[in-house]
Write a structure and sequence with these properties.
Helix content is 46%, strand content 14%. The chain is an alpha/beta fold and 268 residues long.
């Protein structure tokens, strides 16, 4: 455990926590003293994550549940309360990415994205918020994406779901401010996770970093650091915000085309 232990005495639920950004968040919060509840419908990463968590804490719980199902979101909350007595932090990190050109987009693919991203975020928030309201304290961070701020190619349902999460974050932050709950979202750019590598071809991935002002991918640990900041007690006056963590992509906009051209010209 970190000497600072900024989250000692607090309990955090991390959905989609068995891998990628979610597992990095779980480890980050555990390292600073939080009890952790990891929720994932795919438990393949649980064993590896548990071994890593053992380095920081024995106060954790892994649950094979699907936050995209209301009953599972309710069960997740109940089991967290039963084991740890409270829930102080919720980080929603569930999601899928299944590229499909818009003219070929199937209703099944659309619904799968809406459920995995938007439904799961709403159900988890709705299940947890009443428990937070009882103690007039809570921190919620939702996983949006720059795809919710820009137009992604071949990922219309992904972008639409992430835009929905941004809207949900704003609305819920406004309503729940009176009961001591802050709700924010982050909008990562490309992060070095299996989701990224599955959504792009090897050739596209080789060039992808050069299209960012900071010419590399983010690491899951860097995203976890930002989330850890947003769930601090001290960040009590930040709510309803969507924070891009994208290496400058949104700031650059279409000017990145020229920067990329100059980079290519300067290469030997």
């Amino acid at each position: 455990m970190s000497e600072n232990a900024r989250f000692a005495g607090q309990t955090a639920i991390v959905t989609g926590g068995a891998g990628g950004i979610g597992s990095a968040v779980a480890l980050r919060l555990a390292a600073e003293g939080a009890a952790i509840v990891i929720v994932d419908r795919n438990p393949e990463g649980f064993d590896e994550l548990q071994a890593q968590l053992h380095e920081h804490t024995r106060d954790y719980l892994t649950l094979e549940l699907d936050p995209g199902q209301w009953d599972d979101a309710v069960a997740m909350t109940a089991m967290c309360i039963d084991k740890f007595g409270c829930v102080d932090i919720l980080v929603n990190s569930t999601g899928i990415a299944k590229p499909q050109p818009f003219l070929e987009l199937t209703p099944e693919n659309w619904r799968a994205h809406m459920n995995s991203h938007l439904d799961a975020t709403f159900y988890s928030m709705r299940a947890v918020a009443p428990e937070m309201a009882k103690k007039h304290y809570g921190r919620i961070v939702n996983m949006a994406s720059i795809a919710g701020l820009m137009g992604p190619i071949d990922l219309a349902p992904y972008g639409a779901a992430k835009a929905g999460i941004i809207g949900l974050t704003r609305a819920a932050a406004f309503e729940l401010a009176d009961v001591g709950i802050t709700i924010n979202a982050i909008a990562p750019g490309p992060v070095e996770t299996p989701m990224l590598t599955s959504a792009w071809s090897a050739e596209a991935l080789a060039e992808r970093a050069q299209h960012l002002p900071i010419a590399r991918w983010a690491t899951p640990a860097e995203i976890a650091d930002v989330i850890a900041f947003l769930v601090l007690r001290e960040t009590s006056f930040i709510t309803g915000v969507t924070l891009p963590v994208d290496g400058g992509s949104v700031a650059a906009g279409s000017y990145m085309v020229e920067k990329y051209r100059r980079r290519k010209q300067s290469q030997p």
